[in-house]
Amino acid sequence: MTQNISIHTTPISEKNRNIKAFGIVALVMAAWLVLYNGVQPFADWLAYNLLALPQESHLGQALAFFFYDVPKIILLLGGMIFMITLLRSFFSAEQTRAWLGGKREGVGNMLAAGLGVITPFCSCSAVPLFIGFVESGIPLGVTFSFLISAPVVNEVALVMLFGLFGWKVAGLYLVSGLTIAILGGVLIGRLKMERFVEDFVWQIKVGKGGLLPDKPSWFQRFEMAWASTREIVGKVWLYVVIGIAVGAGIHGYVPEAALAGILGKQVWWSVPAAVVLGVPLYSNAAGIIPIVHALMEKGAALGTVLAFMMSVVALSLPEMVILRRVLKPQLIGIFLGTVALAIIITGYLFNLVL
Questions:
Q1: What is the dihedral of CA 96, 337, 305, 112, to 10 degrees?
Q2: Most buried residue, 22, 183, 319, 320, by most Cβ within 10 Å?
Q3: Mean pLDDT, consecutive 10-residue segments, the chain of 354 residues?
């Protein structure tokens, strides 16, 4: 009799735990949405009302940028790691590696680059996905194809280019960005750079998958996702704050007119100069559009402008600071050099054909 009671009560207890877990996660998601949507007005209030800084001042713009981006990126970081880990609980590392790794060189790179195009992430918020890919055992070159394409091929830039210059220019931008991501990932994959990924990334268990039963409950999946989120956010949050602080200072104090004056000249070195100047900056494609317009009005060639925009969103200094937590300097250097060279070639190609 006791045995029968035990058999019937265990599923009920498990069901109650799952229901309670769903309720907690739903409340957390609602709070996450409220916080995320309130970041912008809170940052503006903090900088311009509480601290009473003029909106036109360099310090005011820099602090407003910092107050906005730190909680935004931390929230994105935590939310994406939680969702990725939850999703990974349905697939083994072998299944994920087989899907994105591809049976032939380049297949996984193309899939990852395509995934990067449809994910609306800036370079810094794409880093958590990159970590998740590495943890899942996906080849390093494939993860870099995603890391490159996510910010480089930006939906805002596509719409802007289509509206200003038509489908041919927008299509060329899309194709060139995908090509950079695919070839860059293939090159990094061939160089066998796994030893230049920080050890802790390899040591993190894939959602502690080895400790889960064959068919884990929802409670166990949520518990696994929360543990992974705490572990990764705890290791990278300081680098996020430092990276955004650097970006905020540049955002507030680098004059737009100075950039337009340098890049608005029709000279042979304008494309590499655009890439070099874009690296220290930090913005997404939407934030860089005013500078793009200023450059175009100054007579800069379209290839130069696009090279600048690609450099800002794909090679930003804050992103490099965040990546330093998971990658060693040698691999960051190869990543920078590969993507910068590809962007320069793309800029010259645009200037040549348009």
A1: -10
A2: 319
A3: 44 78 92 92 92 87 87 82 76 57 69 76 62 74 83 68 75 86 88 83 54 71 85 76 75 66 70 83 60 65 82 77 82 85 85 77
**Residues composing the chain:** 354
Q: Residue 340 burial by CB count (10 A; 0-12/13-18/19+): exposed, middle or buried?
A: buried
Paired tokens of 269: 């070195």
Nearest to 167 by CA among 158, 154, 177: 158
Q: What is the DSSP letter of 119?
A: S
* Closest among 111, 107, 104, 100 to 138, alpha carbons compared: 100
* Sign of the torsion formed by the C-alpha atoms of 132, 107, 180 and 286: negative
State the residue for tokens 């890391």. 147
Measure CA 304 to chain center: 24
Q: For residue 174, with 0-12 CB atoms within 10 Å meaning exposed, 13-18 middle and 19 or more buried, which class applies? A: middle
| 248 contacts 62 by C-beta, under 8 angstroms | yes
pLDDT for 28 equals 92
Element (H, E) at 26: helix 2-44
Residue partners of 346: CB distance under 8 A and separation at least 6: 176, 177, 180, 303, 306, 307, 310
Which are the contacts of 108, defined by CB distance < 8 A and separation ≥ 6? Answer: 100, 101, 102, 138, 139, 141, 142, 145
Q: How far is CA 41 from the centre of its chain?
A: 23
d(CA 139, CA 107): 12
Residue 1 DSSP class = -
Beta bridge partners of 64: none
| Cα dihedral 198/204/206/207 (nearest 10) | -140
CB 97 within 8 A of CB 139: yes
